[in-house]
Amino acid sequence: MKLVFASNNKNKIKEIQLLMPQHIELLSLEDIGCTVDIPETADTIEGNAILKANYVTSHFGYDCFADDTGLEVVALDGEPGVFSARYAGEQKNDENNMNLLLENLKEKTNRNAQFKTVIALNLKGEQQQLFEGIIKGKIIHEKRGKKGFGYDPIFVANNYSSTFAELSVAEKSKISHRGLAVTKLIAFLQK
Fold it and tell me: Which of 19, 21, 117, 119 would be 177's cystine partner, CB 3.0–4.6 Å?
């Protein structure tokens, strides 16, 4: 089975590839010749996942899935949320995003947060399916670790002492928000 993952983010593709069964061939946007930066203009994480999946289905005709992820921080009323990738500006710079978040949390004692991923799956002739993964944790005061991407160096999942950036890709993909959503996606595909 060929399935397009509507992303060119090599880190995300690597994480998801580790979880996929052998019989599913994962294709990226680059693999199908999609060079467009698909607009993420929805005001929810679910909405952006749906926009990306629908774009690939309508323009390329492939079975596909797309994800969108947001970091939701309690003390910031759910920010950065749907704007996580561009929290510090449209250039989508991980370092600037983390620095702004740490600055905004400087005076806050509640550092509880969660990562939320929603996957939208489009299969020919079937109703669109949504799968959600949430991992709760906290934002630490300083960056730790060189692995991962996004906010990984400042996020520690509940019951863990390592940041996501200190875990191997395999360890992170087993417990992460994206890993949880992908596990639900795979269970659905294997029915």
Answer: 117
Q: What is the DSSP string of 2-42?
A: EEEES---HHHHHHHHHHS-TT-EEE-TGGGT--S------
**Torsions phi, psi for 87 (to 5 deg):** -60, -40
CATH number of 2-189: 3.90.950.10
Of 161, 124, 123, nearest in space to 140 by CA = 161
**3 state SS of 108:** coil
The DSSP result for 67-80, as a single string, is EEEEEEEGGGTT-E
User: Do 95 and 123 contact (CB within 8 A), yes or no?
Assistant: no
Q: Which helix (H) or strand (E) holds 123?
A: none
Q: Which of 68, 77, 94, 152 is catalytic?
A: 68
Could you report the per-residue pLDDT of 12-59, keeping only the tens digit for each?
888 888 889 999 999 999 999 999 989 889 999 999 999 999 999 999
The overall pTM is greater than 0.85: yes
* Phi and psi at residue 126, to the nearest 5°: -125, 160
Two tokens, residue 58:
């309508």
Instruction: Spell out the domain ranges in the chain.
Output: 2-189
